[in-house]
Amino acid sequence: MLVLGIETTCDETAAAVVRVGADGRGTILSNVVRTQIEDHAPYGGVVPEIAARAHVEVVDRVVAEALRQADTKAGDLDAVAAAGGPGLVGGVLVGLTTAKAMALVLGKPLVAVNHLEAHALTARLTDGVAFPFLLLLVSGGHTQLLAVTGVGAYAKLGTTIDDAIGEAFDKVAKLLGLPYPGGPEVERRAAGGDPRRFAFPRPLQGRPEPDFSLSGLKTAVRIAADGLRDPSGALTEKDIADICASFQAAVADMVADRCRVAIRLFRERHGEPTALVVAGGVGANQTLRAVLQKTAEAVGLPLVVPPPKLCTDNGAMIAWAGAERLGLGLTDALDVAPRARWPLDAAAATIGSGRL
Ligand code: ATP
Ligand code: MG
Ligand code: FE
């Protein structure tokens, strides 16, 4: 089975072809990502209108390139999948409409994939992880711990009560004067810094529910930075590196503590998970990976983190999630609407708008 996946929910225009073999395992035949980072960099964040226009300009070429690299003709596809949300609705509209047009012309099924479900199921593509598993979803817009018991079956164990972790990385980068996108840049600077110089708070540590809070930590970083600025407002490279390292260490500690709580809850409510799985762009962070490796080992669970390129937004995860849904007979009608909001644990994530 060959599935094309199109991703346009944020600032990456991406398309990929994934083949699913008779054994149910997926192979990525192509994975083309055209990032808009340069278009948004001057504004320090994603500008929705610029994003939507940029998707329109390149989506046809990105899809054509994904097919070319996969050595696949559009007519050979078994289905066309696109992210149907959640995300910037102008961008979602571009990818979803492209997929609808292709599905209509080719006479093949359309699958409107939940972008978060695609992040969630990536570990099944890369590592064949079996259900049920504990999912730590840490991306630009979401920070959640979920029990994943099947395709479309997500029970929320904990969530952030304010900012997402990726968003906190981006905001910390901005207040330190680092370029957008902040996450990778904070990680780079942290590599040369002292993680023990600043004792930043570990919010909600010790609480019985695995929820997250980032706003207090962000404020502590702001106060520390403001106390070190020279009269022109600048910080030394050393101060920036130490703040980044200390912030990153606080985030990793917090996440490890919340995961330990979530594993306990998972075992009480859902039995034994097959793995602790990390998904979303923040999963690219090597310090976080190392800390979670120890956390998982301590409780006897394998840690599965897809490679960085499959943690951040990409078309392969959309194609794979599309294939998983198609395998269950879940497809969507051509009038399915793009969604700005689409929570993963809502019933809406479970049922396609049409069944084959
Ligand atoms: P969502 O999936 O919630 O809709 P999104 O698609 O924008 O949001 P992703 O592309 O999954 O999010 O991840 C982007 C986020 O990951 C950004 O906030 C970015 O700063 C963060 N990020 C990327 N690489 C790293 C890294 N190495 N360390 C920390 N954060 C990172
Ligand atoms: Mg992105
Ligand atoms: Fe994402």
Automatic annotation (TrEMBL):
Xref: Pfam families: TsaD
E.C. number(s) listed in UniProt: 2.3.1.234
Ranges where the Gcp-like domain occurs: 27-320
Cofactors named for this entry: Fe(2+)
GO cellular component labels: cytoplasm
Binding site for substrate: 137-141, 170, 183, 187, 285
Enzyme class label: transferase
Role of this protein: Required for the formation of a threonylcarbamoyl group on adenosine at position 37 (t(6)A37) in tRNAs that read codons beginning with adenine. Is involved in the transfer of the threonylcarbamoyl moiety of threonylcarbamoyl-AMP (TC-AMP) to the N6 group of A37, together with TsaE and TsaB. TsaD likely plays a direct catalytic role in this reaction.
Family assignment from sequence similarity: Belongs to the KAE1 / TsaD family.
Protein name in the entry: tRNA N6-adenosine threonylcarbamoyltransferase
Organism, as annotated: Phreatobacter oligotrophus
Gene: tsaD
